[in-house]
Structures are given as structure tokens and as C-alpha cells.
Write a structure and sequence with these properties.
Length: about 350
């Protein structure tokens, strides 16, 4: 039997990963923070009874130790796959709570790895560990596109903490012979994305206004965003969690870039999404005074607000996922931006 322990199970990726592993007949344990229960169980509501959810926190070494040891003691298993998806994952918010972000996204990874390291060798040898990295680690990019050997240049507390996690995972792999993989995942979206992420804000706004008529539309019905000229490489979370799983099925641990190999501005995402409801966006003005109009009605639909700009912007992210596609035989189903937007609008 295979067993999985998922930190951050109530998040977007944890939800999709749980569904994937249930289809593969895994027994799944998930760590849930006490204060995340009310808000986030909605992503798991249809599968919750098939999961073993445990209260814990990656910043609490004792709780991690108890959870891992209880799983090992109470199961006869072939392998225990640990997926570390727990994170404070909003870049802009990481500037407001940098210390908390560092504890969860950085030190939390160390505590998981240290608890694996101190296990007796037989138990440690049956564990495979996945660390969720991010394209934000590349920051102000030093080469285009970004590969597994592109130098990191993080531009936020979130990205900096993730760089620490990446290297501490690599260090424990090489120092203690732990099966540990880093996934450097570019932006991946779905309708389970958090409400404060830009793609979800755009999609939710379109769902809200698509049935409005000129008589019911209000000047208050405006989408307010930050830097719409940033370029991102977007895919679907369902595809990306499959890549996580594939990494842990390999004979040897390694690090992989996961992305679509295509980049679009947020402006282009907006335009493509609005076209799905037959609205063509026309842009007028410059910088903070720029607005996006409905070309037909001239109603203002999009505005720019400086409060949504990051203190340090990341302008261009573009993946080179050839290693994952070749070595893991990873083939995403949502292989273009239109398919991603269609799925987000239809869910």
C-alpha cells in the first residue's frame, strides 16, 4: 500500500492532489491548521470522508514528529510520500507578514526534513519527499526561459523563503541520502484558486457581470488591479499536481521546472477572458490612469490602483519544461491559455 501525507491539503494544489491520489488508491493523511478548517474545507467537501485529516502545523516540530511517527506505526506500507504544499503563498501579502512567511515557507520545510532525517534508516528509506517551489524564485530573471539551472533572484519575502526551502531540500538529499525532490512550479490556476489571486479576481468579475444589461450595470461594477503588464506562464493546477506525483515515482530524486513554456501579460489574460463573454476590451490612458473599456458600451470595466503593485515587481516568467516532459513523460491536458480560462469560467 502507498500512503501520502499532504501538508497544505486544504489549498488549491492539496485539493487536486488528494483527488489524484484517491484515484490511485492511496491512503491519504492531511495536515490541517486549526484556523484553516472553517474557510477551506469547502475545497475538500466532496472527498473529506475519504481523507484522514489531522490537526497540525509545519512550524511545530513536535506535531510534525507525532504525525509522521503515528503514520509509520499504524500502517503496513510500501512507501510514504510526503508532499509539502503548506505555504503562505500570496506574494503581495508576504511583504506585510514577512516573518510568518519565512517561518511557514522556509523553516517549516527544514522541520519536515529534520523529522525525516532522525527516523531510523529503514523507515527513512521508505519516505519520498516533495517540496513545492515556485517560479517566483527566479524573480528578476537572469535568463529567458528559466530552467532547472537558471540562477534564482528572488524579489519578495515569499520567493526568498522558497529559495531557502529549495536549497535545504537539495542539501538534505545530498547529505543524508533522502529521496527529496523540488518542483519549481510556474503559475497554475483553477476555480479552486484563492480569491485574492489576480486570475481568480478576473474570472470572478466576469462571472459577476456576464448577465448584466446596460440597465443593471453600475459604475461600481469595476475590476481593480495592479500591474497588468507583468508576464506570466500559466497552467492548470490539475496538470501540475500530476507532475508532483510523477516526480516521486522516479527511481532517483531530482528537481524539475513545471510550466507551459508560454508567457502572457495579465493584460492579455484580461482580454482573452472578456472575449469569452463577447466583450472586447479597449484600453485608454496611461499608467495609473489607464482604464479598460467595453468597446461597445464604453463602460469602464477595469481600473488600475497602486495599492495592488508589489514593492518589487517580477516582470517576466517563462518556463522551459523540457526536462519534465522528457524524463517524467509529463503531458498537460490544459495545454493553452484558452483551455485554462474556459475551465475557470465553466467550473
Amino acid at each position: 500500500m502507498k500512503i501520502a501525507l499532504i501538508t497544505g491539503i486544504t489549498g488549491q494544489d492539496g485539493s487536486y492532489l488528494s483527488r489524484l491520489l484517491l484515484k490511485k488508491n492511496y491512503k491519504i493523511y492531511g495536515i490541517v491548521r486549526r484556523n484553516s478548517e472553517i474557510f477551506n474545507y469547502m475545497r475538500l467537501v466532496d472527498i473529506k470522508n475519504h481523507l484522514n485529516l489531522i490537526y497540525g502545523d509545519v512550524t511545530d516540530s513536535l506535531s510534525i514528529s507525532n504525525i509522521i511517527n503515528n503514520i509509520i506505526s499504524n500502517n503496513d506500507y510500501e512507501v510514504l510520500e510526503i508532499y509539502n504544499l503548506a505555504a503562505q503563498s500570496h506574494v503581495h501579502i508576504s511583504f506585510d507578514i514577512p516573518e510568518y512567511t519565512a517561518q511557514v515557507d522556509g523553516v517549516g520545510t527544514l522541520k519536515l526534513l529534520e523529522n525525516i532525517r532522525i527516523l531510523k534508516k529503514g523507515d527513512r528509506d521508505k519516505i519520498k519527499f516533495y517540496q513545492a517551489g515556485t517560479s517566483e524564485m527566479f524573480g528578476k530573471v537572469l535568463e529567458i526561459p528559466q530552467t532547472e539551472i537558471t540562477p534564482f533572484n528572488p524579489q519578495s519575502p515569499y520567493a526568498t523563503a522558497k529559495v531557502y526551502s529549495h536549497f535545504i531540500t537539495k542539501n538534505y538529499r545530498e547529505s543524508y541520502d533522502i529521496f527529496a525532490c523540488n518542483g519549481i512550479l510556474f503559475n497554475h490556476e483553477s476555480n479552486k484558486r484563492g480569491e485574492n489571486f489576480v486570475t481568480k479576481k478576473i474570472i470572478n468579475y466576469i462571472k459577476k457581470i456576464k448577465n448584466l444589461t446596460p440597465d443593471t450595470w453600475s459604475i461600481d461594477d469595476v475590476l481593480v488591479l495592479g500591474n497588468i503588464n507583468s508576464k506570466r506562464d500559466w497552467g492548470h493546477a490539475e496538470d501540475y499536481v500530476e507532475a508532483m506525483w510523477l516526480m516521486l515515482q522516479e527511481k532517483l530524486p531530482d528537481d524539475y521546472v513545471i510550466g507551459m513554456g508560454k508567457t502572457y501579460t495579465i493584460r492579455e489574460f484580461i482580454e482573452k477572458a472578456f472575449k469569452k463573454i463577447d466583450i472586447e476590451i479597449e484600453w485608454k490612458g496611461k499608467e495609473l490612469d489607464e482604464v479598460g473599456l467595453d468597446k461597445h458600451t464604453k463602460n469602464i470595466l477595469v481600473k488600475i490602483d497602486a495599492k495592488f503593485f508589489r514593492p518589487n515587481e517580477v516582470d517576466l516568467l517563462l518556463s522551459d519544461p523540457r526536462k519534465a516532459k522528457t524524463k517524467l513523460n509529463w503531458q498537460p491536458k490544459y495545454d493553452n491559455l484558452d483551455k485554462l480560462i474556459d475551465s475557470m469560467l465553466s467550473d
